[in-house]
Design a protein that fits this description.
By secondary structure, the protein is mainly α. Among the domains are: 10-65, no CATH class; 215-373, no CATH class. Helix content is 47%, strand content 3%. The chain has 22 helices and three strands. The chain has helices at residues 10-15, 27-32, 47-70, 241-255, 257-262, 266-278, 280-297, 303-325, 330-342, 359-372, 375-384, 391-407, 414-422, 429-433, 437-454, 459-478, 495-515, 526-538, 554-561, 569-581, 588-604, 616-622; strands at 154-162, 165-174, 232-234. Strands 2-1-3 form a three-stranded mixed β-sheet, sandwiched between helices. Helix 7 (280-297) packs parallel to helix 9, helix 8 runs antiparallel to helix 9 and helix 13 (414-422) crosses helix 15. One of its GO terms (molecular function) is DNA-binding transcription factor activity, RNA polymerase II-specific. Keywords: Nucleus.
Length: 630
């Protein structure tokens, strides 16, 4: 029986050929004109995609052999200009002038259910600072400079075992891509025969990549990479199988949509399924979220569904508290705690009355775990060495920064963000959520200034800080690429352009948030109306509808919407886009933001133009809301 080699490049391993492991490209790949991958490519983790890649390689070899027989290949001239990069650097001052005025950022626990747990575990830093595998060399071969599997309408399957029984094959179809669509309508090339050198003639590929290839290794995930033959085994009770199926079919695609655009299937294969398989608290969290989603979307109501929600919430809390009291498994405990916080933002209607622990109580426990695992220093170290940031630190940072603006407190890791910002480094927020790190770090600074204002900062000092932050935001805009249509001519999405567009939306939202701190501000000011109008126009560059990204923009929509006046085109835009989403616009963070904005508008529209507006945080307090609106 043949056993696949566990060494050599992945192309030779796919062909089941011996590889002499030459660097940067092995002799076989160089001779045949193939891409030589020593870093695990994205098609490796799926049997169907491996089969397609094998056929593509056959075609490349055939073309290479025909080209050698007919004439020596003519190299393509180098392009006169290189494609734009994902990030841009701008000069920054050596130190934020008001950084020292901010107090240490350690948020107290708000009656956290984990407050009695003692943390004594200190891991070694090395496990969070693993160097990335060597970058694959991409040789140029005539008119085929880069050959990659197509990602438009590709069906992928994964066998999932429930209680050791192969109950289902979970299938998904990716309808967006960084690549060009193949010549056939179904998105999969068809090749006949098994010979490596085919005799048929195929049409040449004429389209070139419209933007730089994306690096598919963004994060240091908490789980080891799964092999292509790995079968996911999830143990659940029989009466919970329907919840697991619902979560996999309906919820999973809602959780990390931007990561899925940047790295197809990564949220599923690198984050969620490994955790479902190995983390009981995480599994309880997902089953609870599935029950909430089913209740909201399928209008299932009654004692049974509410009992399922509460049962699995309680089960998750029990598992988390047991792990904390045992002072063990801190990484998996943090993973489940972050899921308890973030997954909740994708489900539930505003009218839901099922009891829950506030998100910031969960996050207080998460902050303790992040510090015990030394993830902030690991993130800084990884950034300095151009290594992959810890995934759990990136997700924690997103919750921390935007969550701080919701509750009006300092971000817990503001000092870390400040250090990364001054060094012009990233923690992966753009790759995970779509907004470039520099904008998010500036939002962190605005949140700190918001706290300083509430604590009585003098108006003159406040205006000075506002002016400084406005200049920093302006600098990021000057260095960024222009917004544009994020689809190419084939209808495939361009991830880098999508990130540019999402960042532009967050940038204007940050400006709006900053302007609300200026003494004497009111929404009807001409400058604020201009910003809201600019925000509205930028939303035209964000894909809408069920496959769009409006649900990833709850926070920017809140910032702009809370400062829109009666008759604003923003309100028309929001109504139209929610109409395209259908009932999905009524649950999760977007549904809560819509209801909150409706209440804010009802209170503010009747006020005199120069009268102080009712703040959205005050309306949340009146409604006794403790939601994380991100």
């Amino acid at each position: 029986m043949h056993r696949r080699s566990r060494s050599g490049c992945f192309t030779c391993r796919l062909r089941r050929k011996k590889c002499e492991e030459g660097k940067p490209s092995c002799k076989a790949c160089t001779h045949l004109g193939l891409r030589c991958d020593y870093k695990r490519p994205m098609w490796w983790s799926n049997s169907e995609q491996r089969k397609q890649q094998k056929e593509i390689i056959k075609n490349i070899i055939k073309r290479t052999q025909l080209a050698k027989k007919s004439a020596p290949p003519q190299p393509l001239p180098l392009p006169s200009s290189t494609p734009p990069g994902l990030t841009h650097s701008v000069p920054t001052s050596a130190e934020v002038p008001f950084a020292k005025s901010f107090p240490p950022n350690r948020r107290p626990s708000h009656d956290s259910p984990y407050s009695e747990c003692d943390f004594k575990y200190t891991p070694e830093l090395g496990q969070f600072a693993m160097p990335p595998p060597p970058q694959a060399y991409l040789p140029s071969h005539g008119q085929y400079p880069t050959i990659s599997p197509y990602e438009v309408d590709i069906k992928t399957e994964r066998q999932i075992y429930v209680n050791d029984i192969p109950t289902r094959k979970d299938s998904t179809i990716s309808t967006f891509s960084t690549y060009h669509s193949p010549p056939l309508a179904n998105g999969v090339q068809s090749f006949s025969g098994d010979s490596w050198v085919q005799q048929e003639h195929f049409e040449s590929m004429t389209e070139q990549f419209t933007e730089e290839p994306v690096d598919f290794n963004f994060f240091e995930y908490p789980h080891e990479p799964q092999g292509p033959d790995h079968e996911t085994i999830i143990n659940v009770d029989d009466n919970d199988k329907y919840l697991l199926s619902h979560f996999i079919d309906k919820n999973m695609k809602l959780i990390f949509p931007i990561l899925d655009v940047n790295q197809h299937g990564s949220a599923r294969s690198d984050v969620i399924l490994p955790a479902l398989e190995s983390n009981q608290a995480y599994l309880h969290c997902c089953l609870s979220v599935a029950a909430e989603h089913m209740k909201a979307t399928e209008h299932v109501d009654g004692e049974q569904i509410n009992a399922d929600i509460l049962r699995h919430r309680y089960g998750a809390i029990q598992e988390l508290c047991a792990a904390l009291q045992a002072d063990a498994n801190h990484t998996s405990t943090l993973e489940a705690t972050l899921a308890m916080i973030f997954f909740q933002t994708t489900v539930g209607r505003p009218s839901d009355a099922v009891a829950d622990i506030p998100w910031y109580s969960h996050f207080a426990a998460a902050v303790n775990l992040v510090n015990k695992l030394e993830l902030p220093s690991a993130a800084i170290s990884a950034a300095r060495l151009d290594q992959r940031p810890p995934f759990n630190m990136t997700l924690s940072a997103w919750i921390d920064i935007l969550g701080a603006t919701i509750v009006g407190e300092n971000p817990n890791f503001a000092d870390t963000y400040r250090e990364l910002n001054l060094a012009d480094k990233s923690v992966g927020l753009a790759e995970l959520m779509g907004c470039e790190d520099k904008i998010m770090f500036l939002i962190s600074e605005i949140a700190c200034l918001d706290v300083q204002k509430a604590d009585g900062l003098h108006d003159m000092s406040l205006c000075k800080y506002v002016e400084y932050l406005a200049q920093e935001i302006r600098a990021t805009e000057a260095a960024s690429d222009p917004v544009a249509n994020c689809f190419n001519t084939t209808g495939a999405i361009r991830p880098r352009q999508l990130t540019t567009n999402l960042t532009a939306v967050f940038r204007v939202a940050a400006r709006i948030y900053l302007c609300t701190l200026v003494p004497g501000y009111f929404p009807a000011q001409a400058s604020m109306c201009h910003l809201v109008q600019q925000f509205t126009e930028l939303m035209d560059f964000i894909p809408a509808g069920p496959e769009g990204f409006d649900r990833s923009l709850a926070w920017p929509l809140l910032m702009a919407g809370a400062n829109s006046v009666a008759g604003s085109t923003f309100r028309v835009m929001l109504a139209e886009r929610c109409g395209l989403l259908g009932d999905a616009a009524n649950f999760g963070s977007l549904g809560r933001v819509r209801e909150l904005l409706a209440d804010v508008w009802a209170m503010n529209d009747g006020l005199q133009p120069n009268f102080p507006a009712v703040r959205w945080r005050d309306v949340m307090k009146q409604k006794n809301w403790e939601y994380l609106l991100i």
